[in-house]
Amino acid sequence: MRPSGRNLDEMRPISIETGVTKHAEGSCLIRCGDTHVLCTATIEERVPPFMRNSGQGWVTAEYGMLPRSTSSRMRREATQGKQGGRTVEIQRLIGRSLRAGVDRVALGERQITVDCDVIQADGGTRCASITGGWVALRLAVNKLLKSGALISDPLISNVAAVSCGIYAGQPVLDLDYPEDSEAGVDGNFIMLANGQMIETQMSAEGATYSRPQMNELLDLAEKGVAELVASQNAAVA
């Protein structure tokens, strides 16, 4: 029995509210159960130096957790003078995941930065950031298309992510914190809408996993991503 009472293949309730900030070109608040992430997308008519005169655009991301997004207050990383290794890893993951769904030639020489700020954390913050980040990106690109700045849509697919793991010996979909903290195996699965995989992160702690178990987790991830893509499409319709 899962702590939440969910079925093994049941996602947490998902909601995506768009247009939640006044100034960002694209924004949403994604809620995956008790994990809430504010995602905003900013368009800049420039690219990083290494992309200049390449004819291609760039999509990047930044990620952070608010001090009371967790059960005890964490210090802001700005007060420590640098980002932690986990933060750097996650924001790089978000950026490269979103880029996998973008035709950067069609985007043109401009940069879109997706900021993901965790308001409340209960497991799966990186997955929620990727899923909500795509919605913010989609809304920003829609503005470029509407204004005529783009003549073709550079977004080739939805991008969404979900966690799966082995909890109490059973493969489960969409881990919340009580499960994530106790899971013998956990993984993050980032996919395109058609199920093509962008990145898979799986690790075991205190246990190992077999090839058939890995396949079970992949099947669960495909189911979860399909549900997230449906929620994304409904949010931006």
TrEMBL record:
<keyword id="KW-0808">Transferase</keyword>
<dbReference type="GO" id="GO:0031125">
    <property type="term" value="P:rRNA 3'-end processing"/>
</dbReference>
<dbReference type="GO" id="GO:0009022">
    <property type="term" value="F:tRNA nucleotidyltransferase activity"/>
</dbReference>
<dbReference type="GO" id="GO:0008033">
    <property type="term" value="P:tRNA processing"/>
</dbReference>
<protein>
    <recommendedName>
        <fullName>Ribonuclease PH</fullName>
        <ecNumber>2.7.7.56</ecNumber>
    </recommendedName>
</protein>
<keyword id="KW-0820">tRNA-binding</keyword>
<dbReference type="Pfam" id="PF03725">
    <property type="entry name" value="RNase_PH_C"/>
</dbReference>
<keyword id="KW-0548">Nucleotidyltransferase</keyword>
<dbReference type="InterPro" id="IPR027408">
    <property type="entry name" value="PNPase/RNase_PH_dom_sf"/>
</dbReference>
<feature type="binding site">
    <location>
        <position position="86"/>
    </location>
    <ligand>
        <name>phosphate</name>
    </ligand>
</feature>
<dbReference type="InterPro" id="IPR001247">
    <property type="entry name" value="ExoRNase_PH_dom1"/>
</dbReference>
<comment type="function">
    <text>Phosphorolytic 3'-5' exoribonuclease that plays an important role in tRNA 3'-end maturation. Removes nucleotide residues following the 3'-CCA terminus of tRNAs; can also add nucleotides to the ends of RNA molecules by using nucleoside diphosphates as substrates, but this may not be physiologically important. Probably plays a role in initiation of 16S rRNA degradation (leading to ribosome degradation) during starvation.</text>
</comment>
<dbReference type="InterPro" id="IPR050080">
    <property type="entry name" value="RNase_PH"/>
</dbReference>
<dbReference type="Pfam" id="PF01138">
    <property type="entry name" value="RNase_PH"/>
</dbReference>
<dbReference type="InterPro" id="IPR020568">
    <property type="entry name" value="Ribosomal_Su5_D2-typ_SF"/>
</dbReference>
<dbReference type="InterPro" id="IPR036345">
    <property type="entry name" value="ExoRNase_PH_dom2_sf"/>
</dbReference>
<feature type="domain" description="Exoribonuclease phosphorolytic">
    <location>
        <begin position="10"/>
        <end position="140"/>
    </location>
</feature>
<feature type="binding site">
    <location>
        <begin position="124"/>
        <end position="126"/>
    </location>
    <ligand>
        <name>phosphate</name>
    </ligand>
</feature>
<comment type="subunit">
    <text>Homohexameric ring arranged as a trimer of dimers.</text>
</comment>
<dbReference type="InterPro" id="IPR015847">
    <property type="entry name" value="ExoRNase_PH_dom2"/>
</dbReference>
<dbReference type="GO" id="GO:0000049">
    <property type="term" value="F:tRNA binding"/>
</dbReference>
<dbReference type="InterPro" id="IPR018336">
    <property type="entry name" value="RNase_PH_CS"/>
</dbReference>
<comment type="similarity">
    <text>Belongs to the RNase PH family.</text>
</comment>
<dbReference type="GO" id="GO:0000175">
    <property type="term" value="F:3'-5'-RNA exonuclease activity"/>
</dbReference>
<keyword id="KW-0694">RNA-binding</keyword>
<dbReference type="GO" id="GO:0016075">
    <property type="term" value="P:rRNA catabolic process"/>
</dbReference>
<keyword id="KW-0698">rRNA processing</keyword>
<feature type="domain" description="Exoribonuclease phosphorolytic">
    <location>
        <begin position="159"/>
        <end position="224"/>
    </location>
</feature>
<keyword id="KW-0819">tRNA processing</keyword>
<dbReference type="InterPro" id="IPR002381">
    <property type="entry name" value="RNase_PH_bac-type"/>
</dbReference>
